[in-house]
Amino acid sequence: MMETQGLIxxxxxxxxLYLYIFWPQNLLVSQRDETIIxxxxxxxxxxxxxxxxxxxxxxxxxxxxxxxxxxxxxxxSETAQLLAEIEHQKHA
Amino acid sequence: xxxxxxxxxxxALALAAYNLIAGGLALRLMAxxxxxxxxxxxxxxxxxxxxxxxxxxxxxxxxxxxxxVFTNDFxxxxxxxxxxxxxxxxxxxSALWAGQEGSLLLWAWLLAAFGFVLRLxxxxxxxxxxxxxxxxAAIQAFFLLLLCFPASPFALVQGPIPADGNGLxxxxxxxxxxIHPPLLYLGYVGFSVPFAFALAALIMRYPGEKxxxxxxxxxxxxxLFLTLGIFLGMHWxxxxxxxxxxxxxxxxxxxxxxxxxxGTAFLHSVMMQxxxxxxxxxxxxxxxxxxxxxxxxxMLTRGGLVSSVHAFAASSIGYxxxxxxxxxxAVCFFTYFLRRGHLKSxxxxxxxxxxxxxxxxxxxxxxxxxxxxxxxxxxxxxSGLVSGNKVTIDAPWYNSxxxxxxxxxxxxxxxxxxxxxxxxxxxTVRRNFLLPLIALLVTAFxxxxxxxxxxxxxxxxxxxxxxxxAFALAAxxxTAIGAEFLRxxxxxxxxxxxxxxxxxxxxxxxxxxxxxxxxxxxxxxxxVVGLAGAAFNHSVESxxxxxxxxxxxxxxxxxxxxxxxxxxxxDSEYALLDVSKNGRNLFQMTPEKRLYHASxxxxxxxxxxxTAAWDLYVVYEGMSPDTGRPVIKAMLNPLVGWIWAGVLLxxxxxxxxxxxxxxxANSGQRTVQKDAEGFES
Lengths: 92, 681
What we know:
The structure holds two protein chains of two kinds. Chain A has three helices and no strands. Chain A has helices at residues 2-22, 36-59, 65-91. In chain A, helix 2 (36-59) packs antiparallel against helix 3. The mean pLDDT of chain A is 85. Among the domains of chain B are: 1-169, no CATH class; 536-640. Chain B is built from 20 helices and twelve strands. In chain B, strands 4, 5, 6, 7, 8 and 9 form a six-stranded antiparallel beta sheet that branches. In chain B, strands 3-12-11-10 form a four-stranded antiparallel beta sheet, with no helix packed on it. Chain B starts with a helix and ends with a helix. The chains are: A mainly alpha, B alpha+beta. Chains A and B meet through helix 1, helix 2 and helix 3 of A and helix 1, helix 2, helix 15 and helix 16 of B.
């Protein structure tokens, strides 16, 4: 008796799940493919953050001025290259 | 309920299989962009819904098992073996993971729950989520296969149904045991999520580091759960096993530590990928290995591959695990070789003294530690296969390897935050390292003056030597990180004109991940101080009749009686010990010995009095077989409380790191303006 009840409950449960899965949906999520430009923009965001951190750490006295200037120049040059690459990709 | 539970598991298996096949097919159709009868988006949506439905099916099975435990359904063999009528309600609940079948069901349920949350948030990146969802479904299908066939939790008792069960293993009848296994499993299962996303991103040749950003929170939370699980296990061993220690290098203990080591390496090295586009292959392999090691941990606990006090059930499912791990490894290798061009580093290391190099060294050391410990754990199995003799490796070998590695990692945890990215000049080194170095040397001299000396009676004392190193290094690390906090706080306080407490809050809000991470490092240093205290443990063991006294450290224990108690679950016998210090009565301790009715097994309940300096740890060992007098063992374990305090800090630090970042302090117009002028200039 208990076995039959268990089986019936299981079947009903399965039927409910079946309805949920295959119930027609009109609002389907579609998405454009992630592009190189997206990842370059992500990298740009990261460089901005690195620059902010560097400024903050310099203000806190962690680095001497010459180290700070050298690192900052490097980061700015990388950002400039990245911006050029983004422009290039946009027109490619 | 057994039929319903079994049916729910079968349904869940079918849904996981559908999720995997339909999800994979939909992604393939989207990639080739050919017109099809059913749109790939619709197919992907049914696959996603099957994953969600799978959660409900596994939940139904777990509910059926819990219901059967609470209603004492002894027609199910799992309930007979792991429960009994008199078992308290909390332990009835923990019977769900007391045995092999139940803990596999817990694995499957947690994975289904994580998958459920992910599938509900799929709009963040539908394709990547669909691919990761299909991978999670494949993992789920493996666990459901185990549950439906070789390890069914709903298998029925053969022959007459017993009136009562055998009860829960007495070792598991302890409050920590109600939460230790679920926490450990939350950690194990949680690492499936970054694994699935890493593999999905690699399969799809996904540009950028989006998969890392999506899984950052999952990885940190899984790491936190695993950390808490490991330390709760240590506390349980300390409070229940009665030998005075918390870590015995048991294979199952090591098995939980292995994914923790690679997971820790992964948490650090992904920062290199996010910030510098470096170590991409490392990261992929670190998360692959972490996932494989979580499977290995589950197999060691449940598969009966090695002998362990934790391997509660030896069985044949070890072979299933080995086969699954081989498949996972093959898929990882195949995908990696096919897509390795996608993982080229965008930059190279510029200097050996830089933040990058400290991350790299840290990751290398963590991986080396993982490899050595794995080798030691599997050595009995491998030696048995090669020579026919199982050679076991004991604790001193592990200590001789792990302690120096641990101390080096502690050193790196203090050095890393002080080094700038890219390269470090001598001037920066002098500026940042002077204070921590002074703290390190002063602590070493103070310890030596207080008697922590690496020699005893003219001979080298390794334990004291490592303790001295640990105390000195911890002082250096705490000073280094304290200085990092203080420097940042002073800038914000200066710019905003507010006090240092406010500045500290703003500092954390400005970069919660960094300062949360530093707080975790502080916690680790405190844990290491606590672990180092073990070098100075001492104990006394004595037969004690009424009014007998025994002294240990500053305490005197006087026996004021022995008594017995009984309840439906167990009989207990305990000693009443009055503890005094300098002739002044302080408190009473009641170490206990229990005998559980259902299983007939005895169990020790240790009495512990904790202070910041030490733990007074007392065990009632029962009656001496020779004299018939009660035997009491007392131990004085220095600094144990520091371990648990350090873990709490690690918890706080990880929670801080999980808080979303706020770029500028929003204390009003003035601060924002200052940020714009100063921090962002």
